Amino acid sequence: MSLLSWLLPRKKPVLGLEQQQRLLQLPTASGLSDAPLRAQRWVVVDLETSGLHLNRDQVLSIGAVVIEDGAIDLSQAFERTLLRPNSPLNPSVLLHGLGPAAIAAGSEPVDALLDFMAFVGDSPLLAFHAPFDQHMLTRALKDSLDYRLQHTFMDVAALAPMLCPQVNQREAGLDQWINHFNLQVEDRHNASADALATAELALILFSRARVQGIDSPQALQQRLNQWQRRKQVHSF
């Protein structure tokens, strides 16, 4: 991205009338609840992107499942590939099965992102390495819809070592935690399968949290914030 493109004002996306109406109807994000963990509806999301550059690469697909009433509700699932005809593909993208043909057959980003945010509703989101997914989703929504994402993200990759301190997995990826808990995951490395695996891991971690006396989303986030602050202090 050139310096000139940073200096020029961002061009707002042009939406059709129906798209504008759908955008206005999206619910406002709610804060984390102080009710029991099992009472919270969570949307577990995974994104596949054209690469790992936060400000240059694009969201190629979105997969999500819902945790509700303390279980994964398979009747609530989301999967969408976004049409990105001019997106340069990082070779690693092909490992996810998202070749040029799949991306060329995808949905228009505006409609796909409206569908996703309607699916999310006012629920908080869970993701593995959430800061990356949050940044990429925030940018995609701003670029395509001029929409400001305000939903809470909680990072399962941070919850795992916090709630399982006896496990030497502090820098572990999703595969390592799946293996640690002997989760039976039939497919991996596409957005929907990774979201489901993350949801299964999250349910185990919620159970660990309750055993440790943490039984609300609000309390879990507060504990996570404290744990991360201690980590930062000890790293100096």
TrEMBL record:
Q: Which UniProt keywords apply?
A: Exonuclease, Hydrolase, Nuclease
User: Record keywords: Hydrolase included?
Assistant: yes
Question: Could you identify this protein by its name?
Answer: PolC-type DNA polymerase III
- Annotated ranges, domain Exonuclease: 41-211
Q: Gene3D superfamilies under this entry?
A: Ribonuclease H-like superfamily/Ribonuclease H
The keyword Acetylation is annotated on this UniProt entry: no
Q: Name one Pfam family in it.
A: RNase_T
Q: Which InterPro entries match?
A: Ribonucl_H, RNaseH-like_sf, RNaseH_sf
Q: Which domain of life is it from?
A: Bacteria
Give the species. Answer: Pseudomonas kulmbachensis
